Amino acid sequence: MAKINLVSQAVELLTIVAEARINTADASAKFALVIASIFATFKPNDKKGFDAMFGNGEAPKAKTYVPGELATAARARIAAADSERQTMALNVLKTRLSECRKAFRAGLTLSKSETVQVALKRLPKQATKVPAGQTVAGNNKVTVAISDSATMEDIASALSIWVAKHGNAANGLASRFSDFLPVTVRRAKQA
Q1: What's the total number of domains in the chain?
Q2: What are phi and psi of 40, to 5 degrees?
């Protein structure tokens, strides 16, 4: 029963944003609090129930797409708003639902009166992923990264860049990886 009331409140607040009846920033902030209240009602292992409420985040054309009760109710309710206002309200909705899905995947629980956005700030920042063989420059420092999905070609290219930056590293690596390194050394010399 409580979830039904919270969903109704969330949809009403989103309708206010879509119809611009009052201060939309205030309605958006209240919407975030109501969404947090709904989020807090789910246990971390209730993925099926969570997806039924918040959607699964997949593309709408995917066979396993689940829009979620919140999105379905909100879309039906704001259908009469002009397209610009409707788009603004849907952007607020999509952002909040995406944040909820991210927080749920991370296993976050909310403190009293905490929004999902605030809870997400507790997550440690992840290092920026750089495609294999590409570099990121900053503070006169160059980073070469190899992703988990890198192919042997990507790894060879990334190692080639690393060897080129570290002078005599090729000799040390050649003795340890004699069957792998010659391909990399040749690429470094050609570059």
Answers
A1: 2
A2: -65, -15
E strand segments, 50-170 = 135-138, 141-144
DSSP code for 41: T
User: What pLDDT is recorded for position 138?
Assistant: 47
Q: Which of 94, 120, 146 is the last residue of a domain?
A: 120
Query: Is the pLDDT score of 60 beyond 80?
Result: yes
pTM, two decimal places: 0.60
The alpha carbon of 135 is separated from its chain's Cα centroid by a whole number of angstroms, namely: 23
Note down the domain range covering 39: 2-120
Dmax (CA) for the chain in angstroms is: 73
CA separation for the pair 162, 159 (Å, rounded): 5
Packing angle of the helix pair 83-105, 69-77 (nearest 10 deg): 170
**Is there a domain that residue 21 lies in?**
yes
Mean pLDDT of 164-168: 65
DSSP state of 149: T
d(C-alpha 97, C-alpha 71), whole Å? 8
Does residue 69 sit in the same domain as residue 115?
Answer: yes
Other CB atoms within 10 A of residue 3 CB: 14
Is the pLDDT at 127 greater than 90, yes or no?
Answer: no
Q: Is residue 14 part of a domain?
A: yes
pLDDT digits (tens, 9 = 90+) for 94-115: 888 999 999 998 888 888 888 8
